[in-house]
């Protein structure tokens, strides 16, 4: 706990950057901390929402002293909030521009990489050593859906007053529909602390209509070397399959906005369109509704290795009675951020 003389340095993550706040004594308040953050980021104190600081089980008020918080050395917290100029720009339309592609052209390397012995050995080590905190037990007979977070479910680069404003439209409807046939795993290339914070702020962790089986962080990833691009970090599904015998390539699909993340399991991966510039794109983004329809359509397929997820948009199944509800959602505007997270 911080003393009255001084408080441990605090690193604030905001808009993809980190800001180090130091020199605040323990008798300073959370309000003083916000003023220090404002000096570095330009975000006004009343627009800041600090995630990662707790006082008596809740976010502390501005008058709480830093000495009353359990601040450990080199503590990192996340801030939600926007600068005034950015808020003004959010209401202005932006010109059309081609999608930014954040991926490698790695198709020719996939087959040679996924079966390399040294990488399979790394996966075996992860299977042996990785600690998985189960949130909900797998259900018998359910297939597996593995989901990325940043740019897949959440625009982590844009700034906003709340996480709900940066949530991909129809996220809760999508997860509710998927949960009917799939157990759901969240796998993000970040620290577990930030994954838990994001899932809580988005209302995913506590939603009564679906449950998350477990979450994986960057610690479950492995590094591989490609001749063209050098060393990269990837998400091998073998880490999951090695721990849960009921899941395999036959009944698993992974959604990620970056194809290289599933280079070890290219046939099981589906590259989702990245969700960026949330304030401008949320009114027209229908990706999750269409993917929910696809997941429902392939749920009866016995072996997913017979599918080509790269052509998922052309997949034409027999219509089922529940798809009409998804079609109706596709025609509706997204719910407000407040109603989606509330």
From TrEMBL:
Q: What SUPFAM superfamilies is this protein classified in?
A: HAD-like, Ubiquitin-like
In terms of domain of life, where is this protein from?
Eukaryota
Cellular location(s): Nucleus
Region ranges (Disordered) = 315-342
Q: Has UniProt tagged this entry with the keyword Hydrolase? A: yes
Q: What is this enzyme's catalytic activity, as reactions?
A: O-phospho-L-seryl-[protein] + H2O = L-seryl-[protein] + phosphate; O-phospho-L-threonyl-[protein] + H2O = L-threonyl-[protein] + phosphate
Q: Where is the Ubiquitin-like domain?
A: 8-86
Q: Where is the FCP1 homology domain?
A: 138-298
- List the GO molecular function terms: metal ion binding; protein serine/threonine phosphatase activity
Q: Where is this protein chiefly located? A: nucleus
Q: According to its UniProt record, what is one Pfam family this protein matches?
A: ubiquitin
EC main class here is: hydrolase
Write down any Gene Ontology CC term.
nucleus
Q: Which cofactor does it need?
A: Mg(2+)
Q: Which GO terms describe its biological process?
A: regulation of proteasome assembly
Q: What is its EC number?
A: 3.1.3.16
Q: Which residues form a coiled coil?
A: 106-133
Q: Which PROSITE patterns match?
A: FCP1, UBIQUITIN_2
Q: Which NCBIfam families match?
A: HAD_IIID1
Q: What is this protein called?
A: Ubiquitin-like domain-containing CTD phosphatase 1
Upper lineage ranks? Eukaryota, Metazoa, Spiralia, Lophotrochozoa, Mollusca
């Amino acid at each position: 706990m911080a003393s009255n003389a001084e408080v441990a340095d605090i690193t604030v993550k905001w808009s993809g950057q980190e800001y180090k706040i130091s020199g605040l004594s323990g008798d300073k308040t959370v309000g003083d901390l916000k003023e220090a953050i404002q000096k570095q980021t330009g975000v006004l104190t009343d627009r800041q929402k600090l995630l990662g600081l707790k006082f008596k089980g809740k976010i502390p008020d501005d008058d709480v002293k830093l000495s009353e918080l359990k601040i450990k050395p080199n503590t990192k917290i996340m801030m939600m909030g926007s600068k005034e100029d950015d808020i003004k720009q959010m209401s202005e339309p932006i010109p059309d521009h081609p999608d930014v592609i954040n991926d490698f052209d790695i198709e020719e390397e996939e087959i040679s990489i996924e079966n390399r012995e040294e990488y399979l050995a790394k996966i075996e080590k992860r299977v042996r050593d990785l600690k998985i905190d189960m949130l909900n037990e797998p259900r018998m007979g359910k297939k597996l859906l593995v989901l990325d977070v940043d740019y897949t479910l959440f625009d982590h680069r844009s700034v906003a007053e709340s996480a709900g404003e940066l949530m991909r439209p129809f996220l809760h409807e999508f997860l509710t529909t998927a949960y009917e046939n799939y157990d759901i795993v969240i796998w993000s290339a970040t620290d577990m602390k930030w994954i838990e914070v994001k899932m809580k702020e988005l209302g995913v962790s506590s939603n009564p209509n679906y449950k998350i089986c477990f979450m994986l962080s960057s610690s479950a990833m492995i590094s591989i070397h490609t001749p063209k691009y050098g060393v990269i970090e990837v998400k091998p599904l073998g880490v999951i399959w090695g721990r849960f015998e009921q899941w395999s390539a036959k009944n698993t699909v992974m959604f990620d906005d970056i194809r290289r993340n599933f280079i070890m399991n290219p046939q099981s991966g589906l590259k989702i369109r990245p969700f960026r510039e949330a304030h401008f794109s949320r009114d027209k983004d229908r990706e999750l509704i269409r993917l929910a329809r696809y997941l429902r359509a392939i749920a009866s397929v016995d072996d997913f290795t017979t599918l080509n997820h790269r052509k998922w948009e052309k997949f034409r199944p027999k219509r089922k009675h529940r798809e009409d509800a998804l079609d109706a959602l596709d025609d509706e505007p997204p719910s407000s951020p407040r109603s989606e997270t509330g």
